[in-house]
Specification:
With 216 residues, this protein is of the alpha+beta class. It is 27% helix and 34% strand. It has six helices and nine strands. It has helices spanning 5-9, 29-42, 86-93, 121-128, 133-141, 151-164, and strands at 50-56, 62-68, 71-73, 76-82, 96-103, 108-118, 176-190, 198-205, 208-214. Helix 5 (133-141) crosses helix 6 (151-164).
Amino acid sequence: MEITKEILENLRQDYRSEQLNDNDISKNPIKQFEKWFSEAITAEIFEPNAMTLATADKSGKPNARIVLLKGFDENGFSFYTNYLSTKGKELKKNPQACLVFFWAELERQVRIEGKVEKLSKEASEKYFHSRPKGSQIGAIVSPQSQIITDRKLLEAKVEELTTTYQDKTIPKPAHWGGYIVKPTSIEFWQGRTSRLHDRIKYDLINGKWQTNRLAP
């Protein structure tokens, strides 16, 4: 099928399933996120914890990729990765990020902006050892974001370490661990008909959350 300009211009969806009313939202955005996230799980959305992580280097050049949310509470939103990856290097120089969840089936998205910190070594250790053994080995083997000459090099190393750690605890590599995004703003977006979407934004001001409705 040839993708023409006309086809792209006419791709559209009218959103009609839900509303986001001021009287129905929680005063606490973490509680509101918990409600929406629970509804995404109930709706059996494929990987409801998949989120876009946007970072920028020290010059402001943006970068984005999909990662998985692995925890959230009043302190922030957590994920795990290789500290030596592109995202890890960017977060070291510019520890700010934006997260975006898009749940198409519910016609919803959530945008989270905040400062980023590493999780404690203890938290990273605990999560690392809760992962399947293959994932633990993969974290050791992969020089994430670096150029490799052949996938077979990775597969050979996986085979070697699988034998080495067959009956042993796999040590967490020093270059792997968690981050937490400590939110300073969270926006909830509910699709509405005729592109007049509902947008409610929470901003953390002097330690307290304030809410405003934004124009679509």
